[in-house]
Each structure stands twice: as C-alpha cells, then as structure tokens.
C-alpha cells in the first residue's frame, strides 16, 4: 500500500543530511564521543551515569522521573551514580565477580535502574526478566544463564523455583520480607551500610554486560549476549533517531525486560545525559496522555499496539490533554499501520516514525528519520554505518521490489556477540557474511524497506516475541493435552494473538471449562502474554514424517490460504 507520502519535517535535527552522512560517517569517528577513546578505560555505566554525575552542569539534572499509581520519585544523575555505587558494593560484599550473571526480576521501579547499573559497575552481566513471567519462564532463563544472584520482590519470589536452581547463591529482596536464611539479602538494610564510593570495574569493549532472553521458532528461549561496545551505536542512534537534545524530556514506554526498554529506555537517553521518564503500572489512555502532559515529554518512543489502543480510545480523550510539549514520536516492535500514522497526524499533530531492529541487533537498524519523507507502511532506511539488504537463502542480494530475507552485513557495533551457551545457534544466523533477521521484506528503488512478515514461526503478540515451542511444551504438560501446535493469528489491535491447536488424551472431552483450565495452566505456568487466546481441539495435529509440527499448514488452514507444499506431511 503506497499511501500519500508525508513530506520531511521542517526543523533542525541532529541528522540533517542523511545521504551525506551515509557517505562520510565511520564508526571509528563515532568513538570520539567517548572519553575511553583517550583513556582506554571502558564501562557503559560510567558513560551513562557517572560521567554526568561528575559534570558540575549535569550532576543535579533529573535523570529519572519515576511515576506509578502509588509512588512518585525523581533521581538526579548524581543520586543514581551514588546509589548504584552502593549497590555495587553490596554485590561485591557477596562475592559477585566480573562475568557473573546477576538477574533482575522486578517491576519497573527506581530500584531496578539503581541495581542495573550497580551490576554493570562490578563488571558482572545483567539479565532483566519481564515482570509477567511465571515459573517456567523464570526457570528456563535462570537455569540457562546459571545466574548467581537474583534481585526480586517477595511477591515475585514465589515464581522462582529455587530447588531447580543450584547455581543461584543469593537473592536480594528489595521489599520487606520474612526470609531469614543466609541466602537472602535485605536490600534496604545492606544499602544503608554500603559506601557510596565504588571503584568501577574497567573492562574491555568486548566484555559482556547484558543478556536478554528472546524467542525463536524452535527450542527454549535463547540468551542474546551484548557487550559494552553496544554503547557506540546506542549513542549515535539516540542522537540521530531519537534526535535527543540536552533539554528534552524523553519517555520510552517499553519494559526493561525487553531490549527496547534497555537500549532505549535506559542507555540511549542516559548516554546523552537526557532526562528519562519511567512509568510503572498498567496501560490506560488517560494515564499515558497524562504522563506526557505532566512531565512535558518532548520525545516519545512507543509501540503500535499501544498506539492502536489510543486510536480506539477516540479523539475525545486526546483532546482533554495538553500534548503540546511533544516534538518527536517514534514506534517499534511491530508493523506500524498507515492508519495509525494518519491518526498521529490528525490527533497528535505529529508524524510517527517507525523504527526496525531486534534483540539481536542491539540497536536501531532501519528507521524513518525526522529530516526525511515518510512512506507510510515502510520502516525507512538503514542508519549510516549499517548495510542492510534483501537477500535470498544463500545470501545473494536481490534486486529492488523483490521479496526476500531482510539481512544486515555482519559487524555492526551493537550486534550480539553470542547466544549464551549455544554457539551453534549463533552461527545459524549468518549466511555468506549476512545476518538473516528472520523477517521478510523488500526494498523499493529509493532504498526504503517494507516489512512483509516473519519467515519463521515466531509470534509477535502486542509487540512481544513469543516462541511457539515454549507454549507447545507448556501445553503438553497439562494432563489433558496429547499434542499441541501453536501459531500466531492476525488480530486488529494486538497484531497477532496466540492460537493453539490441541488434541486430547483419552478420557478428556472438548468442553469450555477444560479449555479454560488449559489456558489458565499456560498463563499461570509460563506467562500471561504467552497464553493462547484461542484454543481449538482437533483430532490430528499435522506433522512431518520426522515428527515436526507443521505450523505453517495449521496457519494456512486457519486463515483459509493455499496450503502450499505438503509433500513432507505424515500420512
Ligand atoms: C518485529 C524489538 C515490523 C520483527 C526491538 C523483528 C518489527 C522482531 C518492527 C524483533 C517494525 C520490530 N516493523 N516489525 N518496525 N520492529 N519488528 O527482538 O519481526 O523483541 O524481527 O525486538 O519484531 O523483536 P524483538
């Protein structure tokens, strides 16, 4: 669909001339933005926090505006620097060493941000877990990463299967609790007695600092491993894509359990020394507009699912709020419908800039820049310094307007450096020097990229990546379920919903109470966002002769599409 193009915005942007920057930019030059370029001493926590805390002009600037229905707080760069020093001292006292995995299973709260930087200051690797994860999801991630320390709340602790986690040595509880064993550390108590001076661990650019678990189409979630070097691309994209300026107030709505919530909910703004808004609590159109109004948010980064909900809430709601502080709006995570862009122009009086990237890419890859024309439905163009293309399965580039694998030339700064514990998986992403994203797309004659869909079975529900295998495995644990096949089914507001096809064991009958029980089983065992919204009982789940579930076939049947090649189908 080629709707009317939206002309470039007028104004002074950090990236004014895309074509020129593509020609002249080099990642080597980008390193000059960092003090380590001269000192050789690197730590992303220093660049994002301590550097500003030591700068008389920035130390008292609000770094974090935190707001949730029952709590409001502001922290300056100096306060975050000191508190994260205290936390780093707590970790050291309990024997956390460089390279150890320290996981965070917390609601969005100031403590999350303080402990996150505390971890990185010790040279350890931070692993944020989405707050909605239930026992199975928590177990898989803590087992695979062999996490040594976990920071959590007494409520969430109930979902941590400690007997299955022999490597987990300490649990830090940030709220009041009744645990007395040595294993438990009281956050408040230890923070009070910890010094606010800390000798930061200087590391190599290629040393690890973050693991985000994400889903593929096969197997358990995989630990995408990022190193301190990621900061180069986070910084440059915070400048060009977020277009951040010193006096901006920035709000990224993503949860730090997902990559957008760290790369652009923490690092992007703070590497640039910009005030960052974090909102806890549930979504509601009123609360979201109110956040923009209350903090005078100028740069806003959100997602299509949320925007679609705002569209359905209606224009009357928007009109009740003063959103005049906004100057730049972006979206990520799912295809951005042209209709939503049109709504943005009318209701917000702003262009909404789509951005495309992945957990594995670490930072923006293809985006719409404020100084460029937008072609609604297109994700935009690759950032300077990045070579993106459309390739066939052997890694040969395809001509314009031909659909294929959306691919990136290996070696961009923010690229994941490995999949934790799984070197084979890492290798499997690359073909002929290209990283294959798993997305299909085409590129038009002018170099704009157009997203078409996933090439694998990964489901994108409300912008969250869900692996069908994880859901199927959980379903199979239910006593009634004999076989399960899980697909993503298109949905107007959520992008996709999860639909599960199951066959039942003998003695069970297809009844709505049973299906609801199965749904709850996934919801309370794995996580709410992974629970199938639709469950259908079917006699036979189509499988290949080697026993692999043919999700494609389930999907085309569901959508009434041609079923394609079924020659490998088990007869
Ligand atoms: C999808 C989120 C269409 C895509 C940062 C990708 C998008 C996956 C867009 C990565 C977009 C992300 N338009 N689809 N602008 N951005 N996606 O790892 O399928 O949670 O491969 O990273 O989301 O999801 P992830």
UniProtKB/TrEMBL annotation:
**E.C. number(s) listed in UniProt:** 6.2.1.1
Q: What Pfam families does the entry give?
A: AMP-binding, AMP-binding_C
Keyword annotations for this protein, in alphabetical order, are:
Acetylation, ATP-binding, Ligase, Nucleotide-binding
Please tell me whether the keyword Ubl conjugation is annotated for this protein: no
| A GO MF term | acetate-CoA ligase activity
Q: Which residues form the AMP-dependent synthetase/ligase domain?
A: 56-417
Give yes or no: UniProt keyword Ligase: yes
Per UniProt, residues of the AMP-binding enzyme C-terminal domain are 470-548
Q: Which InterPro entries match?
A: AMP-bd_C, AMP-bd_C_sf, AMP-binding_CS, AMP-dep_synth/lig_dom, ANL_N_sf
PANTHER family xrefs:
ACETYL-COENZYME A SYNTHETASE, ACETYL-COENZYME A SYNTHETASE 1
- Please report the name of this protein according to its UniProt entry: acetate--CoA ligase
User: What organism is recorded for this protein?
Assistant: Virgibacillus alimentarius
């Amino acid at each position: 669909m080629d709707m009317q193009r939206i002309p470039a915005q007028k104004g002074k942007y950090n990236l004014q001339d895309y074509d020129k920057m593509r020609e002249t930019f080099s990642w080597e030059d980008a390193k000059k933005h960092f003090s380590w370029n001269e000192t050789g001493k690197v730590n992303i926590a220093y660049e994002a926090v301590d550097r500003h805390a030591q700068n008389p002009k920035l130390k008292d600037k609000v770094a974090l505006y935190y707001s949730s229905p029952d709590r409001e707080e502001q922290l300056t760069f100096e306060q975050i620097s000191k508190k994260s020093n205290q936390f780093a001292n707590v970790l050291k006292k309990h024997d956390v060493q460089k390279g150890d995995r320290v996981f965070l299973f917390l609601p969005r709260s100031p403590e999350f941000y303080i402990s996150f930087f505390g971890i990185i200051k010790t040279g350890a690797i931070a692993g944020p877990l989405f707050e909605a994860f239930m026992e199975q999801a928590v177990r898989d991630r803590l087992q695979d990463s062999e996490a040594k320390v976990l920071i959590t709340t007494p409520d969430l602790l109930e979902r941590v299967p400690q007997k299955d986690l022999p490597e987990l040595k300490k649990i830090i509880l940030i709220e009041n609790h009744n645990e007395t064993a040595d294993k438990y550390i009281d956050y408040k108590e230890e923070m009070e007695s910890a010094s606010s001076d800390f000798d930061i661990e200087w590391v190599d650019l290629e040393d690890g600092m973050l693991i985000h678990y994400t889903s593929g189409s096969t197997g358990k979630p995989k630990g995408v491993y990022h190193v301190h070097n990621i900061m180069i691309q986070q910084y440059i994209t915070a400048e060009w894509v977020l277009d951040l300026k010193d006096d901006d107030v920035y709000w990224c709505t993503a949860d730090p359990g997902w990559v957008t919530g760290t790369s652009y909910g923490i690092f992007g703004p703070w590497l640039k020394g910009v005030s960052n808004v974090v909102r806890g609590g549930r979504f509601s159109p009123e609360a979201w507009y109110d956040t923009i109004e209350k903090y005078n948010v100028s740069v806003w980064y959100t997602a299509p699912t949320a925007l679609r909900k705002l569209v359905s809430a209606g224009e009357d709601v928007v009109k009740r709020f003063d959103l005049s502080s906004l100057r730049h709006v972006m979206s990520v995570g799912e295809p951005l419908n042209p209709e939503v862009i049109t709504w943005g122009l009318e209701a917000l009086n702003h262009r909404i800039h789509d951005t495309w990237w992945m957990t594995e890419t670490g930072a923006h890859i293809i985006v719409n820049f404020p100084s460029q024309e937008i072609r609604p439905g297109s994700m935009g163009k690759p950032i300077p310094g990045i070579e993106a293309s459309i390739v066939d399965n052997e890694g040969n580039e395809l001509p314009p307007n031909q659909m294929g694998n959306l691919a990136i030339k290996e070696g961009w700064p923010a690229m994941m450096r490995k999949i934790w514990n799984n070197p084979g998986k890492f290798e499997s992403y690359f073909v002929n020097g290209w990283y294959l994203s798993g997305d299909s797309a085409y590129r038009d004659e002018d170099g704009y990229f157009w997203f078409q869909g996933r090439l694998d079975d990964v489901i994108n529900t409300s912008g969250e990546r869900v692996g069908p295998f994880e859901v199927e495995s959980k379903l199979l644990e239910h006593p009634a379920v004999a076989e399960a096949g899980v697909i993503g089914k298109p949905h107007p507001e959520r992008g996709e919903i999860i639909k599960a096809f199951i066959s039942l064991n003998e003695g069970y009958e297809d009844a709505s109470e049973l299906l609801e029980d199965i749904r709850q089983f996934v919801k309370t065992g794995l996580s709410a966002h992974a629970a199938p919204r639709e469950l259908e009982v079917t006699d036979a789940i189509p499988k290949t002769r080697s026993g692999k579930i043919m999700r494609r076939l389930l999907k085309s049947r569901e959508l009434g599409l041609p079923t394609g090649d079924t020659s490998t189908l088990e007869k």
